[in-house]
Amino acid sequence: MLCFILSDYSLLRKKPKIPIMVAHKLVEVGRVVQIKRGPLKNKSAIIVDIVDQNTILVQNPEQNVSRQVVNLKSIALTDIVAKINRAASSSSIRKAFKEQGINQKYQGTANARKSNLASVFSNSTDFERFQLQRARRIRRAIVKKAGKSKQIAEKPKAKK
Known about the structure:
Layout: H1 2-7, H2 9-12, E1 31-35, E2 44-50, E3 55-60, E4 65-71, E5 75-81, H3 90-100, H4 102-107, H5 110-122, H6 126-154
């Protein structure tokens, strides 16, 4: 029996190492989040306190997001972290927003730009969406024509 175990090469092989994934966006006090669902959709807020493993307390006095409990499934974490204390007062949060320029930093993120474009598109009229469709069609035709002319210019000439 012992000889059988030692001769079995599958037992002697080393197991491959599993790469360790490190989260760089942690749920922490001071982290700026984007609310994804509900009446405050696409607004930013700051984590004031962590209630439990599924809910957090958020607030943003600049965008009229009152202090309220939000589920973690309905937010998106950003890379921006403000320096505030746990359960900070509204005035200290307002002060941190102004001093650290959090709203300006948030407006520069891809999530903010994407949500702004989505809100502009959803608030547009039918005719405005039609105009956008026509403009995209014209732009595609111009790009396609420019690409073909570039291909023709770069095409090597056949020797006779």
